[in-house]
Amino acid sequence: MDTPETLELLAVDLGRAGLSARRVTLRRADEFGLAVDPDGTVAAPRLRAGRPVDVEALTDLVAPLAEAGPVDACVWSVADLTATLDAPALLARAAALSGTERTVVVDGSVATLVGAVAEVGPGVVLDMGVGVVALATDFDQTWRRLDGWGSLLGDRGSAAWVGRQGLAAGLLHRDGVPGGSAALLDAGRRSFGDERGWATLAAEHGPGLLADFAPVVGDVASRDDVARDICRLAGEHLADTLCAGAAALPGAPLSATGGLLLVEAVKVAFASALGKRHVFLVPALGSPLDGATILARHLATGHDLTHRPGALHVWGAASLPAAPTGGERASDDVTEDAEAVEGVEIVEGVEVVARP
Topology of 6-118+285-353 in CATH? Predict the structure, then answer.
């Protein structure tokens, strides 16, 4: 079979920040290299909890990109927030829309890993945001997912964890109990009002509200020992999770990504904790959408992906909802904060042509 002059890719990422999509043209003259204009995608508004995802409505949002012409490979990345989404239904709908058998739906952690290391291959990634999840995989026999248990039972060191610890320390001071922080109590009042309403607000808004307080804890850490200890312990928890993933895949590149790295006190604590463990990271090179695009190129250039229920759903594979085995669990397990989400209102995307 003759090699085509161009390959058309469709990549979609559905995550905590919303939905973004891109269509990319790869050219044989460039050896099908991928060079995406960073200004080539525009994210849709953030997803909100409310009702289960309407798969048909969701795929209709990216229909204009699919209808621009034949697609050689299509990859959807779906974050854990949308764990109630019917992955087989999305896979079938995406394949029908794109018109290609090279259609895959992956958990967001898979796309995060591929985007971070910029290739489809062995690696370990720690995604640190509202929650925390790590993935260690060689895309063959090893599929190890760590944490992601939700803010009640896990997400150790996450933004929600830091925020909750900070508010709890403020309440300890309010009650006159050792270990409290006047600075965090004052900061909590400025952020959320009277402390008697904090529990209600947290119950109504979930881990996202707690996570919003993490940067405040980080700021207070510069002048408050309790806040500093919270950030230090967060760094230790994050390092422990990443190192547990590294133990499952010795020698694989390690990376970390996520909005929590913007909290300087946590970032420094995390780096210090890794240093004590003699662990070194490779820089995260791209986003989950970049990862979805790289996965699509992988498929379009004749490579295969192994079907892995809960982590990587390949079009045409049987028994999509099969249970995980051994000590593993599917990447789309429902966690405490994996709420049903309301359909995205709009999505904007543009055609992006790869450049040499």
Answer: Nucleotidyltransferase; domain 5 (3.30.420)
